[in-house]
Write a structure and sequence with these properties.
Pfam families: Neurensin (PF14927)
Organism: Aplysia californica
Radius of gyration: 40 Å
Keywords: Membrane, Transmembrane, Transmembrane helix
Strand content: under 5%
Oligomer: single chain
Distance between the termini: 83 Å
Protein name: Neurensin-1
Strand order of the largest sheet: 1-2
């Protein structure tokens, strides 16, 4: 994992150096009246080195990111090799207890609604002297 982090850091440093260091001018003014210019070969090499630094930094950054991602993902894919229960030579035999078999359904989704039950009203009974508002009539319309 630390190799991926180190490669990421080297990649970021290489990219920053490649982009933040200013390039040199390739054409040098000769100063003659004809307007001739000379090519500075050292400036060309310097600018090529900066471009290579950008490219190398980008490659290190990508390789470091892939290495770090693999280092973080592999343990989650390989958890069945690391189980402590499977390391023992004698596998444990699991037998359900009788108490667990006698219990009823655990969740409401497993419960069955009895077919012989009656539907009960949950609203209280209405008294005759109470007023009711309905959609069709209201006390102000009378």
């Amino acid at each position: 994992m630390w190799i991926g982090v180190i490669l990421l850091l080297f990649g970021v440093i290489g990219i920053l150096i490649g982009y933040l260091v200013p390039p040199r001018h390739v054409l040098l003014d000769a100063g003659d009246p004809k307007g001739n210019a000379y090519v500075d070969e050292k400036a060309q090499e310097y600018n090529t080195t900066l471009d290579m630094c950008k490219l190398t930094g980008l490659i290190f950054f990508c390789i470091g990111g892939v290495t770090l991602a693999m280092a973080l993902l592999f343990p989650s894919f390989l958890t069945h090799y690391c189980d402590e229960e499977s390391r023992g030579e004698d596998p444990a035999i699991k037998v359900p207890l009788q108490e667990d078999a006698d219990k009823g359904p655990v969740s409401p989704l497993q419960m069955v609604i009895p077919a012989s039950s009656k539907v009960k009203s949950v609203q209280p009974d209405k008294k005759s002297e109470q007023q009711m508002l309905t959609q069709t009539s209201s006390p102000t319309d009378q």
